[in-house]
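@channel anyone free to eyeball this complex?
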Amino acid sequence: MVRFLLGRLWQSLVLLVIVSVIGFFVLNLAPGGPLSQFALTPGMSDAQLARIAHQMGLDRPLPVQYWEWFTRLLQGDWGRSYRDNQPVLTVIWSHLLATLLLMGTSTVISVLIGTWVGVLGALRRYSVFDYAATVGAMVALSIPTFWFGLIAIYLFSLRLGWLPAGNMYTIGDGSLLDYAVHLIMPSVVLALVNVAVWSRYMRTAVLDVMTQDFIRTAKAKGLTRTAVLTRHILRNALVPMVTLLGLQLPTILGGALVTETVFTWPGMGRLFLDSLGYSDYPVVMGLLMLSAILVLIGNLLADIVVAVIDPRIRLG
Amino acid sequence: MTEMTFQTDPAPTERWWQRRVVKRFLRHRLALLGLAIIVVMVLACLVGPHLLPFDDLYIDLRARFSPPFTGAHLLGTDPLGRDVAARLFMAGRISLLVGFAAMLISTVFGSLIGVVAGYYGGKVGAVLMRFVDAVLSFPQIFLLLALAAFIKPSPIMITVIIAATSWMEIARIVEAEIKSLRERDFILAARTLGLPNAQIMFRELLPNAIGPIIVAATLTVARAILLEAYVSFLGYGIQPPLPSWGNMLNGAQQYLDSAPWLAIVPGVAITLAVTGFNFVGDGLRDALDARSDLT
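replying in thread with the prediction:
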């Protein structure tokens, strides 16, 4: 297993390098490149711009600049925000927890509902429920997340007045219950797409496991239906799901961005959009890089978990 | 003369195969529904603006915020008094065109990467596929927004940017398909005949992978329409006064209480169009999968 994990770690490092090259390329696409902020300053002459460019090392060959940028990235120096001159990592850090809270809650919801729908669909294959779940999943995948959020706000906040329309807590309250009430709508909205994906894969995985010999053996030795289902079918069907969760990370993170904007949730997505509005490129780049790194780490973690729970990989 | 008939007449086996696919597709009720939705929407967007009494840019100041089904404006008006129905149709032209064009670009590019990576394999394949993995590590919407913010937005640029962030899946599918086709006898024969690599890749291999490509391409249209909606909703996509389904929703949130139809109408159009393409893609997948006859 050590060998397998070292191999995966190596792959992730290679990917990290390629990801950083892409990030660097995108950064240099910015109008005027990293200089853009200074070019906007009134009364800035070309000579002054050239001097700043020289100070920032922007007149050197691109590979040299890339290497400089990448090593600083590894050392945790991600530049400073154009807006308040704070270090990029500090700015991002203050928004990270809100996003993780939203993503975490939403993922728990989607895994629970998705597993239930997928298992039931597989056990009652071709039933009305199965058919409805299939069609429902495809429609759910077709609904724009932000629009679903708008409709939810319209119904549950504006018309029924059951839930708050946005923000993470009420100013002056901030109790645990208050957080929970604010969390319900955005996390359910974000979960919709993932329930659809999760239930589809779960259904296939359960159908796959159900035809295996060891399930027949388990039934033959007289185990109850529940025991076969939970201890044998579910346990084995959930293994590929861990990998899927890792692969779904970019989608969940991207979905969080859109959901956060609709619900004015103070997370990374809101920060990303605000920074775009202010042309705060260091923060935009930082978020872009950090999201990719989070995804790489997530995939690596998923592989480790699978290796730990699946003896075929652990021993092979 | 005989040579001409030989060339114009397709091989009978191929025709039989095609008919099987068509039959299987026609048996797929959801796919037919999806196809119907798409056809109706395309026709509505093409013909609709000519049937309505209002132009999409006409500002009816006395009828601002009219609700749907109340006055002369079928689907109501927006904050400027523009006819929502007229804007919906014109926006549909843009959104569907952007979705379709982005699909074409990403399919061509993705297939190209996939076929080269799958055919050459080895180091070339590894480098190309790691590049695909790396691009997939970025949340699509983050990458899309960053690119859209850095590059001056125009409908063509938005299309290119959407394509630039959605070709990877097709590349993966094509690479896997080519890798398994590469070992087949007819490719060995082509190699033995001394055909150039380019000809083997594009005349022998790619046509045999067309099924999965078509399925992926259909689903890519759905995703591209959604992506356009996302970026335009957030203000970085298609810029007004040019309407798109996404930017019609851009200001809708602030009028959610007083004029909910501004949010509901374009959202329903997006959902319908995307559902249509997803249904058709799903139907095509089943129809092109020979195993589906067995169950």
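from a first look: The CA atoms of residues 19 and 25 of chain B lie 10 Å apart.
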